[in-house]
Amino acid sequence: MTRELKVLGACPLDCPDTCSWVVTVENGEAVGLRGNRDHPYTRGALCVKVNRYLEHSRAADRILHPMRRVGPKGSGRFERISWDEALDEIAERLTAIVGEFGGEAIWPYQGTGTLGYIQGESGQAGRRLWNALGASYHDLNICAKAGNVGLRHTNGTPAGMDPETFALSKLIILWGTNTLTSGHHLWKFIQDGRAAGAHVVAIDPVRTRTADQADEHLAIRPGTDAALALALMHVVLDEGAEDRDYLENHTKGWESFEREIRKYPPSVAAEITGIPEQDIRALGLRLAHTRPTGIRATMGLQRHRGGGTAMRTIACIPGVTGDWRHPGGGIAYSTSAHIPIQADVRPDLLDKPVRTLSMTRLAEGLADTADPVKCLWVYAANPMGSTSDQNRIREGLLREDLFTVVMEQFPTDTVDYADIVLPATMQIEHTDLHAGYGHMYLIWNEPAVAPPGECLSTTETFRRVARRLGLTDPGLHDSDLEIAAQLLSGGHPALEGITVERLRAEGWARLSVSDPFVPFTEGFPTPSGRLEFVPEGQGYVPPFSARADGPYKLAMITPASHTFLNTVFGNNPELMRRAGGPKILVSEKDAADRGLHDGQRVRVFNDNGEITAELQVSDRVAAGVVVTTKGNWPKFSPGGANANALVGERDADMGRGPTYHDNLVEVAPLREPS
Ligand SMILES: Nc1nc2c(c(=O)[nH]1)N[C@H]1C(S)=C(S)[C@@H](COP(=O)(O)OP(=O)(O)OC[C@H]3O[C@@H](n4cnc5c(=O)[nH]c(N)nc54)[C@H](O)[C@@H]3O)O[C@H]1N2
Ligand SMILES: Nc1nc2c(c(=O)[nH]1)N[C@H]1C(S)=C(S)[C@@H](COP(=O)(O)OP(=O)(O)OC[C@H]3O[C@@H](n4cnc5c(=O)[nH]c(N)nc54)[C@H](O)[C@@H]3O)O[C@H]1N2
Ligand code: SF4
Ligand SMILES: [Mo]
């Protein structure tokens, strides 16, 4: 007789939608996975990627046992060892490194493979152990940091609208965000808004599938959004449509900001952004006269030299229009900062302050000889696929004196450089607590099946490492359910009535906030308590790609792939087949100027490196702009490199965020080996 069970869980991946899912388990095996129909944001659907999650969890290349390197670094040759052997070697190496170089020689390189509060980055899993060892801090700034800091200047927090309230917006601006690819559940709310009369505008250098579905697309020159924002506000002022009462009672710095706006009439912004002046004026008029206007701006927008300034400036718009007064008005970047959960990473275990290493500066960090990194401990990350300046990262990972441990589910390019590989559980096999960064719910993940082979969760791995090192602080040995209870114990009003027991029984809970939720009705969490405008003179920060005097002429953008989630699924045969290998979209003019034709294999290159891609002549990009996507595994790409071989290790203007969409390249015919 079969025994069938339905187990409620959460998608762990770095996606704003954090879906609530239902696993069907028969005789201890996961046989079905679907989106939870009862969840108001998931509404029964997962996505083209995660529909294959069960198949992925059983894939033939899954790492099932601890391994030790036997070949040269980078060769990916390993022998199977036992957990005892792995832990012994780890304890011995870590003890020696801490003794000789101090704890700061350890770099705990945690990525976004899972966003869980127990197993993943939201709760900084592992940080208690790192504090006990005195390891360097790791600034996980690879994704959203410049925008977070930019928004904090204006609003005091990166958090804003509840995305569900786009159903109430009358003008919806999708700004530097590819909703239908990078978080499609929002689309249903946009459609609800549309059904009630909302007009939808996409602002994106690329005519994405989202732009195709919008009512209007403005093809902006990359990295020039702050200038567009200023010009839109200029039109609002021309119309006399600014909300005087809101400006007076809820904002700070208006006089100087107004002078700044006056410097950017649509004619000036048209020159900078490449958008025709009449289109800027038309959108400005809509903005002036449509309440509420909801702006959805996400991470794509801020992966530029001026990314922080762009977000900070766009966030000023609802201050001028007074849109924060209305449900459906304002700006939505991430809801993370609405989630009042603060993991206790036990800073008291550190015996002295330690340095912070920047996730986006891995190559630089590994090259530091003055204060060397001697142990790189990678978990839920794939820096060889996802981090800037791949070729220099490779050089760093080849260092013989670097002890590299990688906790992984799959044999990634990063795994190939490990000294010790530890097999990691997948979401259906461990306990976790999640919150969306695109909605207002907490979601529980109950393990549905036993881990395959000898896979262990992040928490269990760190408990065992701590034990082997003889570290006895009880905080290093808390069970997953104890950690969960601690996470929910903060006493914040938005967590009222939300307990581990309730989450385990019901699967999810909306934060205890009003519905519809309208933020900032009681003021802004800034020093003044008001929305703080950008000071005069901030203007727009030209992107690196605006440089016209060098040998590389094409501004390259590398956004989300429809079929991969960062590098997750980059080894799934069906999704690889659908992606069809690396592509580079080039305008007809740029292709003709270089004598290139559609379908040709080309090299895309700059001083950082080179990739091989299939050229697609496309009217989705303007002349001067080319686009490829993130997520291809280097080792499965022709030429052995992905787009990050071309991305420079440079910071955005705020938070040391990355500049993935702000690089110059050239494209030429592939030199076939003779
Ligand atoms: N399918 C899929 N979904 C994903 C991911 C994935 O890899 N695949 N990744 C997840 C992660 S980690 C994140 S952070 C989010 C990111 O999701 P998004 O915020 O959507 O980020 P991107 O895909 O990088 O870029 C979004 C859009 O911004 C545009 N863009 C680039 N530069 C500019 C600019 O200067 N101005 C304007 N206006 N637009 C610009 C790009 O062309 C792109 O269409 O998505 C998550 N969802
Ligand atoms: N060119 C370019 N590069 C980009 C971007 C871009 O727009 N363009 N976007 C950037 C963004 S937004 C982000 S967030 C980063 C992401 O960069 P990373 O944080 O490095 O994320 P991934 O490359 O997805 O690698 C995550 C790895 O974690 C593993 N994993 C998943 N779950 C678990 C788990 O529970 N335990 C363990 N131990 N491992 C697990 C997966 O198998 C996968 O190999 O990439 C960035 N890279
Ligand atoms: S990747 Fe995003 S859309 Fe897909 S299942 Fe996960 S949370 Fe949902
Ligand atoms: Mo991200």
Automatic annotation (TrEMBL):
Membrane-spanning intervals of the chain: none
The species this protein was found in: Sphaerisporangium corydalis
The molecule here is called: Molybdopterin-dependent oxidoreductase
InterPro entries noted in UniProt: Asp_de-COase-like_dom_sf (IPR009010), MoPterin_dinucl-bd_dom (IPR006657), Mopterin_OxRdtase (IPR006656), Mopterin_OxRdtase_4Fe-4S_dom (IPR006963), Prok_Mopterin_Oxidored (IPR050612), YoaE_C (IPR037920)
Q: Which Pfam families match?
A: Molybdop_Fe4S4 (PF04879), Molybdopterin (PF00384), Molydop_binding (PF01568)
Q: Which family does it belong to?
A: Belongs to the prokaryotic molybdopterin-containing oxidoreductase family.
Q: Which residues form the 4Fe-4S Mo/W bis-MGD-type domain?
A: 4-61
Per UniProt, the keywords (alphabetical) are:
Iron, Iron-sulfur, Metal-binding
